[in-house]
Design brief:
Helix 13 runs parallel beside helix 16 and helix 16 crosses helix 17. The protein has about 400 residues and is an all-alpha fold. It contains 18 helices and no strands. It is about 80% helix and about 0% strand. The protein starts with a helix and ends in a 13-residue tail after the last helix. About 55% of the residues are buried. The protein has two domains: about 190 residues, Growth Hormone, Chain: A (Up-down Bundle); about 200 residues, Up-down Bundle (Growth Hormone, Chain: A), CATH 1.20.1250.20.
């Protein structure tokens, strides 16, 4: 009887992962949508654009810190209940953000949203893997992660367009509605699945002491900081290179399409030529792209097609990091692969938070300075990669010494 139930559950499992991907699409949109209308939000709350950027920073840092803690505390909670609760909490947190009367209240609601997102995303991936036969797990995980990358291509530009037409609060109401509708769909379509024995937080963090892991995770933070120094301030930065009004949404869409292409290409290339070579190309491309933006912001010789191409390259260089970094982590400690992938997700958001903080400190001096700092961070990531991969396996995985 049990075998029949498992077979029945798994037979339609791959299709059911689509509703989980809709949830990660909501999470991704929520994480990055503010970049499209920071100046308007700042004006509404009577703060500077740099101060408003703290809303992006606190979300990213809170996600990074909360992820391992939430995973430990909720390990025994039935999976469907946890997914639905996280989506409802995310929806309510976005509604509270939309109603925030001032920046301090907004920051508190962004922290609450980050905690809910940290509960949802890893759980969605784990549930997707359990819904399908072993030979379909990679595809199921790709579908769920695809929701995040699709958010950069579709969700963020859509939020920017809605923000331009109806205001930034309307965009957050849209995210809230998406999360609540998805919660209903997940409750209806996801089968009941039990929780698991919790992994103590000390065990989770002990993995950080492994030499191979120590070489990889700081690079994730540094690389994502370089990528996101300018992203949260994309609207004022793009204005310095001749992009205004609805053009911002189109440039963010170009960034998102580049992110999807870079993520997919990096996964294939990492298997063929090794993760270290993919990362080398990615960081070099990021440094070149940021330098080009800095130079473009200092001249009147501007072209929208050129800016669109640079935006796509920016997205590709930003999101080509994740597949090879996960490859290196799994190679460094295969026995702790799920844990290390989760820690890498925390490092991604920590890097996003750090980059946004740096961007907020540099944007008052001009977009050129901000892009220059981003280029320097990309070169620092390249230097870290070169230094830490001198003693590696042939595919670029750090050896433990």
């Amino acid at each position: 009887m049990l075998n029949v139930s498992i077979t029945s559950r798994r037979s339609g499992g791959l299709g059911r992962t689509l509703v989980l991907a809709l949830g990660t699409f909501g999470v991704g949109t929520d994480a990055f949508v503010l970049a499209g209308f920071l100046p308007d939000m700042a004006a509404s709350l009577d703060v500077s654009t740099a101060a408003a950027g703290q809303a992006v920073t606190v979300f990213a840092v809170a996600y990074a810190v909360a992820s391992p803690v939430v995973a430990t505390l909720t390990a025994r909670v039935p999976r469907r209940l946890l997914l639905v609760t996280a989506l409802v909490a995310l929806g309510l947190a976005n509604a509270a953000s939309a109603l925030a009367p001032n920046l301090p209240v907004l920051l508190v609601t962004r922290v609450l949203a980050a905690v809910a997102a940290a509960a949802y995303t890893p759980t969605a991936g784990a549930v997707a893997a359990r819904l399908v036969p072993p030979e379909q797990r990679a595809r199921a995980l790709a579908v769920v992660v695809g929701g995040l990358t699709a958010a950069t291509a579709l969700g963020v530009p859509l939020g920017d367009a809605i923000g331009a037409l109806l205001g930034w609060r309307a965009a957050l109401w849209l995210v809230a509605a998406l999360c609540l509708v998805t919660a209903v769909a997940v409750a209806a379509l996801t089968p009941p699945l039990p929780g698991a024995a919790p992994v103590p937080l000390t065990v989770r963090l002990a993995a950080l002491r492994r030499p191979g892991v120590l070489a990889v995770l700081p690079l994730t933070v540094l690389g994502m900081a370089a990528a996101y120094t300018g992203y949260a301030f994309a609207e004022p930065a793009l204005e310095t290179v001749g992009v205004t009004g609805s053009g911002t949404a189109w440039m963010l869409a170009a960034y998102g399409l580049g992110a999807i292409a870079g993520n997919l290409a990096a996964g294939v290339a990492a298997d063929r030529i090794g993760p270290a070579k993919v990362l080398t190309v990615g960081y070099a491309a990021m440094a070149a792209t940021m330098t080009a933006f800095a130079l473009l912001s200092a001249t009147d010789a501007r072209s929208l097609p050129t800016v669109a191409a640079l935006a796509a390259a920016w997205g590709a260089a930003s999101w080509c990091q994740t597949p090879p970094q996960q490859h290196r982590l799994i190679g460094a400690a295969p026995d702790q692969a799920p844990l290390l992938v989760a820690l890498n997700s925390s490092a991604i958001y920590l890097g996003i938070g750090a980059g946004t903080l740096v961007g907020g400190l540099t944007i008052p001096t001009g977009a050129g300075a901000m892009f220059t700092v981003a280029a320097v961070l990309a070169l620092a990531a390249l230097a870290w990669l070169t230094t830490t991969t001198r003693a590696t396996t042939p595919d670029g995985v750090p050896r433990e010494t």
